[in-house]
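Would you mind writing out the residues of a protein together with its fold in token form for me to study?
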Amino acid sequence: MLSAVLLSASALTAVAQEGPVGVTPLDAVTATATRTPEVAGDVAAPVSVVTREEIERRQPQNLNDLLRDMPGVEADGLPRNSVMQPQIRGLGDDRVVVRVDGVRQNFSSGHRGRLFLDPLLLRQVDVLRGPGSLLYGSGALGGVISLRTVDAADLLRPGEAVTGIVSGGYQSANDQLYGSLTSAFRSGALDGLASVTGRAGKNYRDGAGNRIPFSAADSVAGLAKLGWTVGDGFRLGLSALGFGENATLPSSANTTSTSNIVKRRLRQQQLALSAEYAPEGSPWFDARAVAYYADVGIDERRVVPNDGRFDSTDYTTLGLDLQNTTRFALGAFGRHALTYGLDIFHDAQEGRRNNVLRPEFPKADQTILGLYLQDAISLGAFTLTLGARFDRYEQSADGQSGRSDSRVSPKASLAWQVTEWLAPYVAYTEAFRAPGLTELYATGVHFPVFPGFFNFFVPNPDLRPETAKNKEVGVNLRFRDVFAPRDSLRARLSAFQTDFDDFIELVVTQPSPFVNGTTQARNVTRARIRGVEFEAGYDTGRWFATLGASALEGENRSEGGPLANIPAQKASLTLGYRVLETGLVLGGRVLAVATQDDKPQPSYPTSGYGIVDLFASWAPVDGPLVGWRLDLAVDNLFDHAYRRLSWDGGATPPAFYDVGRNVKIALRTQF
């Protein structure tokens, strides 16, 4: 099986890049919080980074493998790799903006998943927690996740013009085999790479030893990039990213249903053309433009019951994102970094059943245009950031009335560098989410009730946008030479309160005998989420450690009681040691999650749990094995049976637990 995968698919895993002495994840460079490159631990916002080194150690199959240790962050969905969706501070679905190489991932269709990507292609993952509409527009109520795929420069070793990488691996939890091959080059002003990844797996085993039905899948993912450094700070790039999967699973793919099973063929593809212009020494231009196309298509043929029903679901996005940063000084009025730009995108969706339009996923489209301006003003030890964004959106569906609306999203923050090691900050941000096309225009049958009677979707074109207002205080800490020469200790502590208005929920009218029921999206809820988050990193070059913790609570301010899906209190610790002379890295992780019993009724507590992971990697630094890398890991070492809150919110417990013990091995060679 592995040899077949290697012959038919190729992928990448980058060269082991051990971080320099005293560099923690909070020292990583990110542009997600401000759209300008900054050190993550210096930003006046709670942004977390997963680096390439950490991605390689984790050998991830899905998004949850990368996000589960982050404060206030989880991944929704059963252990099915392509249906997991991120949740930030209790908000998921399209209340979180997800971008891959600057391309918005706007697909949203019931329980079918949202992000389709092989995580081994990733260079870095940035997560901004809290409202972020100033820079990212509609949908950033919970936050923003920015994923960047690898570039040729990440793969080529110093002095190399061409390189090739072959790798393969096995994971025991679903008996998954995967193989990969990639090639990257640099020739004068041109550089590029090509890669495809293949995976074949069986059903997952949970922590109680049960096979989780319909969790097996075969997938192929590909990435191609070409870059041209024209000169004088000008660079053009072209990239293509694709993902395909075949699986048999419920039509509501992130549920435990076994009554409506389909054979699903999924495809995702995106194309992006980018341009960067930042002449050396010029304060006027630090510009970037991305034009993109993204398409998701899902074909489902029902096999239980085997009635031949065939559904197709298609979602296409065309977008353009332009930005520039101009830097200047105004004497006593400080130094300014003025970032401004626009982004516009058009979404079109269509669902069909047996080649007839499917009203439950209506044929509809929307266009959203945003204009934004942000000024970061440095006044001695203070940095004042002010900004505002204007969004205008228009939405329409076949046979139904169109609608349009607009929204202004402001932001203000103040950071104070009290000393070299102490920098407190305060921030106020607003965000919004335009109603989804399905929320506005869905009709047709939601579910059957009695023989001959049904619950029907009812459209609601008068939905108002959801809005969020966030107040946050925090402090960034950074120290050097704490316990050893050139070591680094970074930390961030933040507290926030976010108030939401006009939350959109599906209101289901319970049917009675011989009377049909209805389901309609309505603005029904005011809500509040507040909490405390902490993250820290320590690195001596040999020893490294990270710590994260969060405690959140959510309140339904319209009806009283708690909100659903608010993450339980949790803490995570990673500790590792590098044998620099040999290229050996050893370590482990502990994730402790408290019981969550503050849930809407009817419900039951989601039990707390503790998970222990171990990892080891070896990338020889000299001798005949230079260029090889071996990764070994064991997730859920003690095979604990547990459930994540994000798919444990019903009135009765799910039939299965989360993934049990998973032994992982990956071997790679570069030539």
The first helix runs from residue 2 to 8. Helices lie at 2-8, 52-58, 64-67, 133-136, 152-155, 437-441. The chain has a mean pLDDT of 92. The CA atoms of residues 219 and 245 lie 4 Å apart.
